Amino acid sequence: MRPREIPKAVLLTLGLLVGSAEGGEPPRKEVSAARAHEGGARLRNHMDNSALKTFQATVERQARNFSNFFLEGKHPYNEKGESNFSLTFDDGPDDVYTPAILDILKKYNIKATFFLVGELAEKYPAMAKRIKDEGHAIGGHAHEHVDMRKLDTKDMYANQVEKTRELLARQLGFSINLFRAPYGVVTDSQIEECRKHGVVVANWSVDSFDWRKGYDNPQQIEQVVVKHAHPGGFALFHSGRDDRSATVAALPHIIDKLLQRGFAFNRVDDALDVPR
Fold it and tell me: Tens of pLDDT along 6-23?
């Protein structure tokens, strides 16, 4: 299966580059538990062009200015003093890569967070149910995988966010209060509309680049996540829509290395105190 081409406009917005060093700095205890809304939340990947710097500035400003928009968790450390880190997966479910990722997470007894595309949850309801039954958090990733900025705010909320919430509630039996926009891009007014309806928008602080042509190989995916992992971080991966075999291959190595560095894995809803 060949990877889908990312729209040119999105590539210009998300033109991130992978750092070359492996390992990164060890967790540091001075990180504030309230950092996400005290100006410290940021994208950790290397930024080297004007389009990316604009994207970075936008989402970091949104994290500072909106009480329901986050790049990372509120709790960098758990009660044991271990560094929390959240593995998140967009663009599922499917019947190839999603189950492979679930098998890996089950082997390690790790709970993650899956942001599901509504129309794919309709196509693969059994897989959405498996994600729930195995204890993972679930958020919406719009009903269709489209750029939210091109949509009117009311239309975006009704036909992308709420439609997916209602679908998943019918399928899974509980309310979905997490949302992540396709490509991570959403307008200020759309964030505010989500807030009015009790929806938390959760982006990421570490991009695995598993979506990016030329960077989507297991070694580079592993390298970038291990390098930029930090206490309270949210890592972006993908579990559907395209060829995600590199993500599946990299994931066990990422988990092993982060466990060796003293990280523990938590769900995004727990990281943000979103009621289950």
Answer: 444 444 434 333 333 334
Q: Is the dihedral of CA 54, 244, 102, 126 positive or negative?
A: positive
pTM for the model stands at 0.86
- Among residues 75, 90, 210, 216, the one annotated as catalytic is 90
Any catalytic annotation for residue 90? yes
pLDDT in tens, 45-64: 887 778 878 888 999 999 99
Which residue is catalytic, options 230, 238, 242, 270? 238
Question: Residues 6 or more apart from 68 whose CB is under 8 A from it?
Answer: 191, 194, 195, 199, 200, 201
230 flagged as catalytic: no
Domains in the chain, please, with CATH? 61-271 (3.20.20.370)
